[in-house]
Amino acid sequence: MKTFDIVLNPKQSLFFSKIFTEDMHIRDDAPEELAYFGAFRCGKSLITMMITFYLCSLFKDVNWLFCRATYPELSDSVIPQFMQLFPPDLSGYQYNKSERNANFSNGSRINFRAFDRDTKILSNEYSGATLCQAEEIPYKLFLQVLGRLSGQAIPKRFLLVEGNPADSWAKERYVENKPDHVFFINGSMEDNKANLDPNYIEGLLRDYPQDYIERYIYGGWDKTSDRVYTAFKNHNVIPSVKIQKHFYLCIGLDHGGINDTSLVWMAKDESGNIFICDEWHKKQAEFHDVVNASRRHGNVNIIADYSMKTPDRDQGSWWLDLQAQGLRLIEANKSNKFDNILQVNKLFHQHKLFIFNHLEYVIQQHKGYKYKPARLNETENRRDEVVKKDDHSVDAVQYAIQHLKGIEVESPAKIFAPVINPYNLRK
Fold first, then answer.
1. What is the CATH number of the domain that holds 169?
2. Are residues 38 and 160 located together in one domain of the fold?
3. Looking at the domain assignment, is residue 215 inside a domain?
4. CB-side exposure of 102: number of CA atoms within 13 Å?
5. Closest among 211, 216, 278 to 243, alpha carbons compared
6. 257-267: pLDDT as tens digits
7. Is a pLDDT exceeding 70 seen at residue 1?
8. 238 and 165 assigned to the same domain
9. What is the rounded CA–CA span in Å between residue 410 and residue 247?
């Protein structure tokens, strides 16, 4: 069988050895459910992929489920990582892109599936399964996967589970009330330090808020709060300061339709400080309301959601109509919601983002911005999804923050500094 030059850290080695003996036989006392949770880049994905690969290589006619909650992450992350670790032409399998199957020469097959797209996942019988980022998978579906592990191609029906700390069923099952038959490892980024760039961890320790450090660097479970902006503290709320003429001023706009439309004015100075300095909101705002409010502090750039480009049923596109009024619209880079949240949290943590203390609407919405709570008895668990309620100024701020990342502000001293030609000694 093909071997690969992969160096494991001690926790990865322990996880692997719970299933395999040194001569690659299945251990008689191997637990059937093994979970590896913890920090980013601690090695949990690699070791579950490795075990999956060897089980399908060593045993014939294995039908294995490799699953993630959502298709984009499966397609863009999971499958490419597996194929990079175990290239098809060197690893005894062929990858069928249309079916998303790794078909081995011994008749075994890995089925790469996503719960949000593949409706027939749970109508099949599997010899084993790997659940990637399991905290994102609803608890009901997790239980149904357990019920489908009835294949007999392997001496034991293994379930490999990996993920990050989160306030979900995974915390309940593996941390707070772990069953005796489950083997669980919790990993830290430090465990995998030998395989990481020396500056990687140092940079995250500098930039991440404390709860992110505990959760995603050290793999801790104590700070898995439902509150989104955990780095937002009282010192981020300040009395108004004068917005200087050289500051870059823009508006974040969240168009609410039947809900609040929110305008948030944000200014960036030459040191990278960002001030949320004014706001306007109105429920079921009409077109002229938004036009008039937008001009409160002059005709500045407005960072808005591109969905405003879509024509309403009974009228035209708000985007085009606002542009016709001379307003300077820039399409928001909504990016990934997690990335938007992380960017705002980092700015709060670094003391670079401030809200003027008279903007109660903005302050309360940022304090009340929460993830969906995990409920073990509901059909859906939280997948780091936010509660979409009273978040209009929150979205407006996120739009503007993404825009402001690329804005550099020059100080007046630099702008107005005289150009002095060096004295030519030869004259």
1. 3.40.50.300
2. yes
3. no
4. 27
5. 278
6. 789 999 999 99
7. no
8. no
9. 8
List of residues 6+ apart from 18 with CB closer than 8 A: 27, 30, 31, 34, 183
> What is the model's pTM?
0.62
CB 19 within 8 A of CB 158: yes
Query: How many Cα atoms sit within 13 Å of 85 on the Cβ side?
Result: 19
Out of 34-43, 100-109, 217-226, 340-349, which region has the weakest mean confidence (pLDDT)?
A: 217-226
Please provide the size of the chain in residues.
427
* Predicted confidence (pLDDT) per residue in 14-61, tens digit: 999 999 999 999 999 999 999 999 999 999 999 999 999 999 999 999
In a domain, 216, yes or no: no
Give the CA-trace dihedral at 199, 201, 203, 209, to 10 degrees.
180
Residue 95 resides in a domain: yes
Q: Are residues 262 and 169 in the same domain?
A: no
Task: Examine the domain organization and report whether 257 and 151 are in the same domain.
Answer: no
Number of domains in the chain: 2
369-375 CB contacts, 8 Å cutoff, 24+ apart: 369/227, 369/228, 369/229, 369/394, 370/226, 370/227, 370/228, 371/167, 371/226, 371/227, 371/228, 372/226, 373/167, 373/226, 374/166, 374/167, 374/168, 374/169, 374/171
Which structural domain, as residue segments, surrounds residue 147? Answer: 10-202
